[in-house]
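Q: Could you write out the predicted structure for this multi-component system? I'm mainly interested in how the pieces pack against one another.
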Amino acid sequence: MKWMKMGVFLAVCLLVVSGIALAQGTEARYLVKSDSGLLKAMLGVQHNFDNGFTAELTSGQLRALERLGVELEEVPLYHTLVKPVCGDNICQGNEPKSCPTDCSGIPDPDPEPEPGRSCVPSSQMPYGVMMVNGGSGGAGINVAILDTGVKVDHLDLDVKLCADASKRGIKKGCADTNGHGTHVAGTVAANGGSDSLGIWGVAPEANLWMVKVCGPTGCWSDDIAEAIRYVADQGANVVSMSLGGDVESSLVRDAIDYAAAKGVLVVAAAGNDGPAEGSIDYPGANVKVMAVGAIDVNENVASWSSRGVNDGDFVIEEREVELAAPGVAIESTSNTGCYTVMSGTSMATPHVAGLAAKVWQGDALSTRAYLQQLARNHDLHTLGDDSATGLGLPMAS
Ligand SMILES: [Ca+2]
Ligand SMILES: [Ca+2]
Ligand SMILES: [Ca+2]
């Protein structure tokens, strides 16, 4: 038996090495359902899970493993859910997903750190923070944001935990070269800065945690799953994910089950694929996750905000939008050290994550029920949970 096993491993060696040599084209990430140390050594481990490990495989390695009968599962790639910026105009309507001309996406970060305060926000208390009656509280509640990282030395942010799950395992550091995560972090917990000239988030006293799960290609769902488990073990109360995609990740679902069992409240963006019914993204679509749709300053639903399959029965089930929050033209912290305006269900989500910290009811289930009640007090559209705004807009009393 031992020799047969070794023979198989030698065959794997040969096939995988030849796979590397012959490999052409793009890499993809897979869950390799094996605990073989040799396979791990050869392929490199991104993250270990109960039912296997993830690795980036070349097409040659993939074919070799399939020939050997190793069970594989593709790892979905998710994306941050911010709308593109076209010139000076923020996309708010039914624009094509790629901007017609001069679409620069999120502006490039300023590589130079800001010495002291060189800029002030156009509004210290952004309209979205006011709409949910935020801007104070959250003390003692750990809010873990899984995103592109954060500008740790922004004058208005006090980051208490900073980790990186986008490399192998969990590493230190969470520098934000994109800007998305810094913006989301500000909406949760910006504290106005020590000079009180800066911007405010929904729960400025909350403990702001950031785990980087998104890189230049997007947000790999195995990195997300690893990060969810990590922050659950560290004692997170709330997990906020301004990201998603059309395909569900089994690793993320398992991680959410793990976190929920530890009493963590999970919030995620509904997606930017509206207005089609049922266009909601995972992980928001998961019944254990609070999915947040986007409204504007007048409580109108953004056309692009993903819709659920809601049935109006006041009960949130799988693939239903749960709440609505401000997500159009939201001002928050920028990774230049200044401030910027972004739109997307990415921006709606941290309003709810911050509000969860502000109104924390002692445990995740009670807090979720309380947020649902707050939303029902401000029901939008048709009575009950509708596909665009769920149970409504939660506002702290
Ligand atoms: Ca959900
Ligand atoms: Ca329902
Ligand atoms: Ca409604």
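A: Regarding packing and overall arrangement: Confidence is low (pLDDT under 50) at residues 21-25, 87-114.
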